[in-house]
Amino acid sequence: MMSEPKGQYVTEFSEPGSEVVPWAEVEAVLRDAEMFWLSTVRRDGRPHVVPLPAMWLDGRLHFCTGAHEQKARNLEANPRCALTTGTNSYRSGLDVIVEGTAARIGDEATLTRLARMWADKLDWPFEVVDGQFSDPGNNDHRAPVYAVTPAKVLAFGKAPYRQIRYTF
C-alpha cells in the first residue's frame, strides 16, 4: 500500500481562488471509473492509445491484455505508460492521468481479488490460471495482468479550472 502522495497546486494552469483537489477525491475517480485510456509507445516511437477497463487496488492501476496485442508488445519494449480517465465535459468533472511503469503480476491472491473486482464492477468474469486471467471455460485464451505503479498523477478540475500534480 502506498503512502498518500504530496499534492502540488500548479498556479500556471489554475484559476485564481481554486483549491487543491484532495487526494481522496482523485482516488475515488480512479476507484470508480470503468474505462481508462492506456497510452504506450511502439518500438518505432509512434504512440498507441486504447480504451480499456482498469482497477485501482492497493495504490496501483491494474489492467489485462492478450500477450499478442500491441499494448503488451509495447510494454515489453518500454514499460512506461499513462492511464487516463475522467469526463468528456468541459465545465465539470475531474480528469485524472496516472503516469508510471507497468509490470506483469502473477500473484494468485492479488489476481483473485482483481478477478472478483472485474466481475463485481463490470460483470466480466475471469478465472485465474497459471498467474494470468482466463475466460471461464476457455483456458486457451490467457491475458497477462499488469500493475501500473504511479510515479506522478495529474488531476484536472473543471469549474473552477485547476491542475494538481501528485508525486510519490
TrEMBL record:
GO terms for molecular function: coenzyme F420 binding; oxidoreductase activity, acting on the CH-CH group of donors. It holds the Pfam family PNPOx_N. Keywords: Oxidoreductase. SUPFAM superfamilies: FMN-binding split barrel. Residues 24-121 form the Pyridoxamine 5'-phosphate oxidase N-terminal domain. The keyword Translocase does not apply. GO terms for cellular component: cytosol. It comes from the Bacteria. This is Pyridoxamine 5'-phosphate oxidase.
